[in-house]
Write a structure and sequence with these properties.
This protein is mostly beta strands. It has one domain: Maltoporin, Chain A, CATH 2.40.170.20. Helices cover about 5% and strands about 55% of the residues. The longest helix is centred in the N-terminal third of the chain and has 18 residues.
């Protein structure tokens, strides 16, 4: 077997080299080459091309990215501006082995290394990917992850068993806003683009008193969406309407005590009308749905220097989230078959879910200071306790149900954790972390289903980092993560399908990170192997509906005995000259179920786990005022579900932007998906929903953003 056979097994191997050249190599070369000229190829003094140090803030201590012994992607505010990203979903393709599923107005279901949920309906959900925004827990409800006034987005791949526990089996996303400043500064930005897209945002920061700084930011983002409803003759039934606001107050109470209060509000009043019977961006729904989220949240973060040995760090957060998700289930109008042979076959149905979720967290930890190191001043330490309570109440309003469905899902997590960072020698550092967690979950619904879980869980990590020289680090990592078991809510399920077990995963990882070419090239390369036991898989039972020609779906989670996910992740950031910078990422993933899923679905790649994905960006500063960026991103095809064999198509997207600066003013022209590729972001198979075809079984797809062009203006002071 040759190299490409090993990278692209099964039916891919025969054409692997050609596919790789066409879909990856050629676009990458194009992206690098276009901005270059003869003058740009001349070398420049290394002091003019240094890359700023990147700090990861998600761990127990702020750590330089190139000194973090784990696979981490960090995207800064400049990256957000270049892509004109208004939501987290528009950044995820830049991170290797990170994918998402839509099935809503936003891609709020995230997969890391092939692991993560793809949807939620009536079933209670235990997320695989944690999402933290300014210290506030928004795990499982990514609609709050707007990019308003964001400093950086950190994506931690692999189980975060010590750091975060039960809701971070696959990894964690930490979103950090710009912080208050001593000096008065601010910005106002206006943006407009295709499909009625318009954005107004502003931020103001400065001193509020001798020891108090504050920052306030507001953003209103609207778009008609890129769906046309031909029946209603409207082009805004899949619209975006998102208001975000944040206020941060930083109070230096004393030389030893610093307290920060964050207030956060999101009101997303988005439409949802994405699926078409004809698999186009033209729908026929007579009752378009909605995807709404109103979140009011706060976090209080304090750091108290108890003495020269110990710092007490406390984070208290609370979030009140009201969500509504609904859709026209038949995707059509009532008389679609009038006067046709299918007359009488059609049905009409609306499905709507209203959730009220409240969650609070308290995280208290003692963090050693230089004078408090253990074992002859060789070991830093952290010890903490964690508490999290969440109450989620659901109301489902469904046309074909005898009455409304209600459920109450309460979870409580208590944990104790600790970590030691030991310098075994000047060049060798050992990190050991352990977390013990008790999770209790109570579920009850109007169909008399009730379930209680009370289990003890544990996770942790051991890493060894070897500093080969001042610029290069080699590391090895073993970590253990867990995802709690739970209950399937539908009473039609047989007893053996009513509950599912906790999933456990061991992650073995090694990598190298470093600065090269006199600090003008930063690289990260990681290889990982993840062994999964009792994999939680979402399945669907398809049954004929009473008094209708359509079908009913019963979603439920079950456990596959085992599986393995392994692959490679690489990133580089290269300041080639004073004028040209190039960023690239590449992920390769083999994520397979080791046993057949069913009689018809044999061993195969896991759902939403593309074998490869890549991104490349070149930024060329033509003059002091004019800069240009060209991006290429792509992804292999992947299975859309574990319950059927439908797949997305592989794709390559081309994005570009041009920025012109004049003193305090900035003008940007931007374009995404310039070649207007059709990108599938959610899909279904194994059923029929078109009465004109007498409900013949076929596949249905939701498409991502088509070609979009726009202009933005920003004033900073």
């Amino acid at each position: 077997m040759n190299f490409f056979d090993s990278l692209f097994p099964d039916n891919c191997s025969q054409f692997a080299l050609a596919r790789l050249a066409k879909k990856i190599v050629v676009p990458l070369l194009l992206a690098c080459a276009l901005p270059l000229s003869a003058a740009d190829l001349k070398d420049s003094p290394p002091t003019n091309g240094l890359i700023d140090e990147i700090i990861v803030s998600a761990d127990f201590r702020d750590t330089a990215l190139l000194e973090t012994p784990a696979s981490v992607t960090v995207m800064d505010s400049k990256t957000i501006v270049r892509r004109q990203a208004r939501h987290l979903e528009q950044l995820l393709n830049l991170a290797p082995n990170v994918n998402f599923a839509s099935g809503a107005s936003r891609g709020r279901f995230i997969q890391i290394r092939g692991i993560g949920e793809r949807s939620q309906f009536i079933e209670p959900l235990n997320p695989s990917v944690g999402t933290i925004v300014d210290g506030i827990d928004f795990t499982g409800i990514g609609g709050a992850a707007t990019t308003m006034d964001i400093a950086q987005v950190e994506i931690l791949r692999g189980p975060q068993g010590t750091l975060y526990g039960a809701n971070a089996l696959a990894g964690m996303i930490n979103i950090k806003a710009n912080q208050p400043t001593d000096e008065t500064q601010g910005a106002l930005e206006l943006s407009a683009g295709d499909y009625g897209t318009r954005t107004v945002s502003g931020a103001l920061s400065g001193a509020l008193g001798e020891e108090v700084n504050g920052r306030v930011a507001v953003q209103q983002h609207r778009s008609d969406g890129y769906i046309s409803n031909d029946f209603l003759r409207r082009d805004d039934t899949n619209n975006i309407d998102e208001l975000s606001a944040r206020a941060i107050f930083d109070w230096r109470a004393s030389e030893r005590l610093d307290t920060k209060l964050t207030l956060f509000y999101v009101n997303a009043d988005n439409g949802y009308d994405a699926f078409s019977l004809d698999n186009t961006r033209h729908t026929l729904s007579d009752s378009p749905g909605q995807d709404r989220q109103e979140s009011t949240a706060a976090a209080l973060d304090s750091r108290w220097q108890l003495n020269d040995r110990i710092e007490l760090v406390t984070l208290v957060s609370y979030a009140d989230n009201n969500l509504e998700y609904g859709y026209d289930e038949d995707w059509a109008y009532t008389d679609i078959c009038a006067g046709q042979p299918c007359d009488g076959w059609e049905y009409s149905s609306v499905d709507n879910y209203l959730r009220d979720r409240k969650n609070g967290t308290v995280d208290v930890k003692l963090v050693s200071q230089p004078e408090g190191r253990l074992l002859n001043d060789s070991t830093d330490w952290v010890f903490g306790v964690y508490w999290r309570d969440q109450d989620e109440q659901l109301l489902r309003q469904y046309t074909y149900a005898a009455g409304d469905f209600t459920s109450d899902f309460d979870t409580s997590n208590r944990a104790v954790y600790g970590q030691l960072d030991s310098e075994l020698s000047p060049s060798l550092r050992l990190t050991t972390g352990l977390r013990f967690e008790n999770r209790r979950a109570d579920y009850a619904d109007s169909d008399t289903v009730s379930h209680r879980v009370d289990e003890d869980l544990w996770g942790g990590r051991i890493s060894l980092a070897y500093q080969m020289n001042d610029d290069t680090m080699l590391y090895g990592l073993v970590s253990r993560g867990y995802k709690a078991g739970g209950v399937n809510s539908d009473p039609k399920l047989t007893p053996d399908k009513r509950s599912f077990n906790t999933e456990v995963m061991w992650n073995i990882e090694t990598g190298i990170k470093g600065n090269w070419l006199q600090d003008r090239l930063q690289t990260q390369v990681a290889a990982f192997y993840q062994k999964r036991d009792d994999i939680q898989i979402k399945q669907s039972l398809v049954q004929p509906r009473d008094n209708s020609n359509a079908s009913d779906f019963t979603d439920y989670f079950s456990n596959s005995a085992r599986g393995s996910n392994y692959g490679l992740e690489a990133e580089f950031n290269w300041s080639t000259t004073e004028s040209l910078a190039v960023f690239g990422s590449l992920g390769w993933l083999d994520a397979t179920y080791n046993i057949p899923l069913s009689e018809t679905l044999d061993r195969r790649q896991q759902a939403h786990a593309p074998r490869y994905q890549f991104a490349l960006r070149s930024t060329f500063q033509a003059t002091d005022r004019l800069g240009m960026t060209l991006e290429v991103e792509g992804k292999d095809k992947f299975y859309l579900s574990s319950s059927h064999s439908e797949q997305s198509d592989s794709y390559v997207l081309l994005n570009a932007s041009m920025v012109y600066n004049v003193e305090d003013w900035q003008l940007s022209l931007w374009g995404r998906n310039l070649t207007d590729e059709e990108v599938i972001v959610r899909g279904f198979g194994g059923f029929g929903n078109d009465p004109r075809k007498f409900y013949a079984t076929e596949a249905y797809y939701q498409y991502g953003e088509p070609r979009a062009l726009g202009i933005s203006g920003k004033y900073s002071f």
